[in-house]
């Protein structure tokens, strides 16, 4: 029995239930019966399943069930507790849940302990914003009181996010998450800091660091983002006062995009291997600051660009030579005679290029990493010129008290006043900004605490461990390797209040840190008992003890970089919980964490343990809108997970995560979500068909594979192949491939082929027919496999299907393992044979689709086509019931040449079909058109098969 309206759809039961018959044979048919609804109602049903999981304590049940198994530990990268989750954090948590669930169902003990980042600038900034709105000053509030407000803010949002993550279906130890604001965690973090102190890796140094003048603190690389910024540019003359002819009495020209750093200039760098020229100015544009007759020195490759920019219309070269000729040359500062009365030497620098500028680099050791390196190499002074708020310090001549962001114009004006300015302009370029305040940053020379990349061979160890770790995708290895290879020392100190304190004492005279194991032990004991607030509320003698005079020591009030907090989570989470292990099996975050959590965790663990804290790292992309743009409120293109769940359900969001290649950026939009809803509906209908046709399945019906028809054995072969594919993809965390494989199997090989063909046998065959028993046995196996494979992805829908059938011993589908399918089911030769059959069938169904469209037939069962095949294909077609496979009432196979007007499709040119009508009458039970309809005594409207089935049903009923 077939419904012509659904033969080529993915919904094999879409129109069942209303079957026109002369007599009522409905009671003799095995029509699908299931409580699994076609309409999912996920937004309403999912909370019911969540409640059931918590009522049965599913998380604890999983832990008890998995005791003694091999552990797989995904260590949770902590999200920030400062607002509702967004689509990026939702995607991240879903992906982690899929990892944890698949590993559990592979037979491992896959425990997931969620965690949060609770310290740091973003939370502190929020509290300061509240203060400013209320007219309060943070500095007027006791630091412990301020810290308490930060703590309560973090805990509030932690609770909000916890409920939002749970609503996504994520299973984990939500009652016992980790967080760095607990005293036991803070004790471990401080202990890790003190390990660096004691092994010599921690040191105090004054060097330029990325500094936020708004937040008044140093920032880590991971706290920086780059935006376009318009800078004032200046070309400046530096008069040569010492050097051979023709240098003396002429000018070196520099170019910079940060005029405010000119007070910090202490040298000029040149490229020893570059070519330079001295040009004598012959003509200038009107208004240009260049002077006819003066000689200026620039890189030869940049001469034309410099002349064009500063307005030199004509010049002649009066000197040519290598950069090495400038060794020993000395200039005066452009503000010489106005408080800047020192020599400015020309020094070789490997960082000098001819990509832009003049080939001479203005060098301010207090305002740039490369400048600092050159300064250290040649013993330059590293002046402190700018305070924490971005103001020039009182001792800075000409500009004391001015803010650096407002000083570019005044600096250029003074240079012009003193005859040193050659040109000023504008440049739009990528510039570092604070990710929190969005304000531009500066390089500022300040005393900070650093972890050395060279002491204890930290860089070398980290690079070696990177090569040991497995990276998914593999290019992640190259990214973090280059970052570690080139990164400067780790700036550990922050001039903030909300965080783990930098628990150090600095000698007032020696300016060296106190390294005393007894003091360290007291610090750890107090913080472990009372929390980090004790550092801010206790007098120094409480920690120093009787052996050190507090008058000799300065107790630091800085906090530790928040990336150190999260970077030590392997120590205060993995190493302190009995249900976890270290190193972690997997770290999983966005690709930006190569410079964030992956990075800091690697350095911290390598610096204290000599190894990475993870065995493998998986990265995903970012969430973009449907047009590939970053989502933002200003663009109005944000898609919120809460709204998606409210409209469609969490399973649709989970499906979206794995339906794309999540190692790349993911796009989301209403149109994309609608596509996922359609994909979901196809999967759901497949499950519904299977459930409906397994009604009252009895184990006595089960057939061994060897006794099944070839079509069923082909399905089992495909199922076994898919099982191997799924398991292998799980080990590679390739969930996109799992989705594609399972979805394709369900929609193409099952719904559009096997289930479409077997509807007739399932509905119309006698209950004890081999064909029907084989099909139901296969459906039972399909149900077991599909619900298991889909459970980590569609966690709610798989549970609904499992509960609807209610025949398994497990209370939840999530307490199951992936079923073990017999290897002997695999039959590559059978797969190849049925691939040829499906190829031939595709041409037949294509021909019949045209017949239906042209209304020459109403259903495929009215057809009896002639199929022209090669001898080999013809033999295959005759070896099976090809009419049954094509869902026609008959098929004729011919090896003769096909007529020119036969139907063909482009990619199957050796198969041709000539449509024709079936001969006979229509069976009113199965709708097949057969010659024997009307020839069976007592059953004048049935075919022989249906007459036998009806008699068998009557016998059973009697």
From TrEMBL:
Biological-process GO terms, alphabetical: isoleucyl-tRNA aminoacylation
Domain (Methionyl/Valyl/Leucyl/Isoleucyl-tRNA synthetase anticodon-binding) ranges: 712-864
Ranges of residues in domain Aminoacyl-tRNA synthetase class Ia: 49-669
Organism domain of life: Bacteria
Positions bound to ATP: 633
InterPro entries linked: aa-tRNA-synth_I_CS, aa-tRNA-synth_Ia, Anticodon_Ile_BEm, Ile-tRNA-ligase, Ile-tRNA-ligase_type1, Ile-tRNA_ligase, M/V/L/I-tRNA-synth_anticd-bd, Rossmann-like_a/b/a_fold
GO cellular component, one term: cytosol
Motif ('KMSKS' region): 630-634
Free-text note regarding domains: IleRS has two distinct active sites: one for aminoacylation and one for editing. The misactivated valine is translocated from the active site to the editing site, which sterically excludes the correctly activated isoleucine. The single editing site contains two valyl binding pockets, one specific for each substrate (Val-AMP or Val-tRNA(Ile)).
Protein name: Isoleucine--tRNA ligase
Source taxonomy: Bacteria, Pseudomonadati, Pseudomonadota, Alphaproteobacteria, Sneathiellales
Gene name per UniProt: ileS
């Amino acid at each position: 029995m077939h419904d012509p309206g659904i033969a080529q759809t993915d919904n094999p039961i879409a129109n069942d239930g209303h079957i026109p018959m002369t007599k009522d044979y409905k009671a003799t048919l095995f029509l699908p019966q299931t409580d699994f609804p076609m309409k999912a109602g996920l937004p309403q049903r999912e909370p019911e399943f969540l409640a059931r999981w918590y009522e049965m304590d599913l998380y604890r049940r999983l832990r008890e069930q998995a005791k003694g198994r091999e552990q797989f530990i995904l260590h949770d990268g902590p999200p920030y507790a400062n607002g509702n989750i967004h689509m990026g954090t939702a995607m991240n948590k879903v992906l982690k849940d899929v990892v944890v669930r698949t590993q559990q169902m592979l037979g491992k003990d896959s425990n997931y302990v969620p965690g949060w980042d609770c310290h740091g600038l973003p939370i502190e900034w929020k509290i300061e914003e509240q203060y400013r709105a209320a007219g309060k000053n943070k500095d007027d509030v006791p630091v412990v009181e301020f810290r308490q407000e930060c703590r309560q803010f973090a805990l509030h949002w932690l609770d909000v996010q916890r409920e939002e993550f749970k609503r996504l279906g994520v299973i984990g130890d939500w009652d016992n998450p980790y967080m760095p604001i607990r005293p036991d965690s803070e004790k471990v973090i401080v202990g890790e800091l003190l390990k660096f102190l004691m092994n010599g890796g921690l040191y105090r140094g004054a060097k330029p660091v990325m500094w936020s003048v708004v937040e008044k603190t140093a920032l880590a690389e991971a706290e920086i983002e780059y935006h376009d910024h318009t800078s004032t540019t200046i070309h400046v003359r530096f008069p040569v006062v010492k050097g051979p002819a023709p240098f003396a009495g002429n000018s070196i020209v520099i170019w910079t995009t940060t005029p405010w750093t000119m007070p910090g200039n202490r040298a000029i760098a040149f490229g020893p291997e570059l070519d330079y020229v001295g040009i004598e100015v012959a003509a200038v544009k009107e208004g240009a600051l260049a002077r006819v007759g003066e000689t200026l020195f620039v890189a030869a490759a940049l001469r034309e660009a410099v002349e064009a920019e500063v307005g030199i219309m004509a010049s002649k070269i009066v000197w040519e030579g290598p950069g090495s000729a400038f060794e020993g040359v000395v200039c005066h500062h452009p503000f010489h005679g106005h408080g800047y009365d020192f020599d400015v030497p020309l020094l070789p620098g490997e960082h000098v290029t001819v990509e832009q500028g003049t080939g001479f680099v203005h060098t301010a050791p207090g305002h740039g990493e490369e400048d600092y390196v050159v300064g250290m190499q040649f013993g330059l002074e590293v002046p402190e010129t700018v305070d924490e708020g971005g103001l020039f310090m009182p001792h800075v001549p000409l500009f004391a008290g001015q803010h650096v962001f407002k000083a570019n114009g005044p600096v250029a004006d003074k240079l012009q006043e003193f005859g040193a300015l050659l040109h000023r302009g504008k440049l739009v370029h990528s510039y570092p900004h604070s990710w929190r305040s969005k304000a531009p940053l500066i390089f500022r020379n300040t005393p900070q605490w650093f972890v050395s990349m060279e002491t204890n061979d930290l860089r070398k160890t980290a690079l070696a461990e990177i090569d040991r770790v497995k990276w998914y995708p593999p290019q992640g290895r190259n990214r973090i390797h280059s970052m570690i290879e080139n990164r400067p020392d780790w700036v550990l100190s922050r001039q903030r209040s909300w965080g783990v304190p930098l628990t150090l004492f600095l000698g007032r005279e020696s300016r060296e840190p106190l390294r005393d194991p007894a003091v360290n032990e007291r610090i750890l004991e107090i913080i472990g008992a009372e929390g980090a607030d004790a550092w801010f509320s206790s007098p120094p003698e409480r920690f120093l003890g009787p052996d050190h005079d507090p008058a000799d020591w300065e107790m630091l009030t800085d906090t530790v970089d928040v990336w150190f907090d999260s970077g030590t989570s392997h120590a205060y989470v993995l190493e302190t919980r009995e249900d976890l292990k270290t190193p972690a099996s997997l770290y999983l975050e966005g690709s930006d964490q190569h410079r964030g959590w992956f990075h800091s965790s690697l350095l911290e663990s390598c610096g204290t343990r000599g190894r990475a804290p993870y065995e493998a790292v998986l990265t995903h992309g970012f969430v973009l809108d449907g047009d590939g743009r970053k989502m933002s409120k200003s663009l109005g293109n944000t898609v919120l997970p809460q709204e998606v769940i409210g409209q469609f359900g969490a399973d649709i969001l989970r499906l979206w995560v794995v339906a794309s290649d999540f190692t790349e950026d993911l796009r989301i939009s209403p149109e994309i979500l609608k596509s996922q809803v359609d994909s979901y509906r196809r999967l759901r209908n497949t499950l519904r068909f299977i459930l409906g046709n397994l009604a009252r399945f009895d184990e006595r019906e089960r057939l061994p594979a060897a006794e099944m028809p070839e079509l069923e054995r082909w399905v089992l072969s495909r199922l076994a192949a898919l099982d191997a594919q799924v398991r292998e993809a799980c080990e590679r965390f390739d969930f996109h491939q799992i989705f594609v494989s399972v979805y394709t199997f369900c929609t193409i090989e099952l719904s559009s082929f096997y289930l479409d063909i077997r509807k007739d046998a399932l509905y119309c065959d006698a209950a004890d027919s081999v064909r029907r028993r084989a099909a139901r046995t296969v459906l039972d196996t399909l149900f077991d496999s599909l619900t298991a494979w889909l459970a980590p992805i569609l966690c709610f829908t798989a549970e609904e299907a499992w509960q609807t059938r209610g025949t398994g011993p497990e209370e939840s589908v999530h307490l199951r393992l992936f079923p073990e399918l017999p290897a002997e089911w695999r039959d590559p030769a059978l797969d190849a044979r049925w691939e040829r059959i499906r190829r031939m069938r595709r041409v037949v169904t294509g021909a019949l689709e045209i017949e239906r469209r042209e209304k020459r037939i109403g259903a495929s069962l009215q057809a009896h086509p002639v199929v022209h095949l090669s001898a080999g294909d013809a033999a295959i077609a005759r070896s099976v019931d090809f009419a049954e496979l094509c869902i026609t009432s008959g098929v004729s196979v011919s090896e003769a040449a096909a007529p020119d007007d036969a139907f063909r499709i482009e990619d199957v040119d050796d198969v041709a079909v000539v449509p024709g009508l079936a001969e006979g009458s229509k069976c009113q039970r199965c709708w097949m058109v057969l010659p024997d309809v009307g020839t069976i005594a007592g059953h004048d409207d049935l075919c022989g098969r249906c007459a036998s089935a009806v008699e068998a049903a009557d016998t059973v009923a009697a």
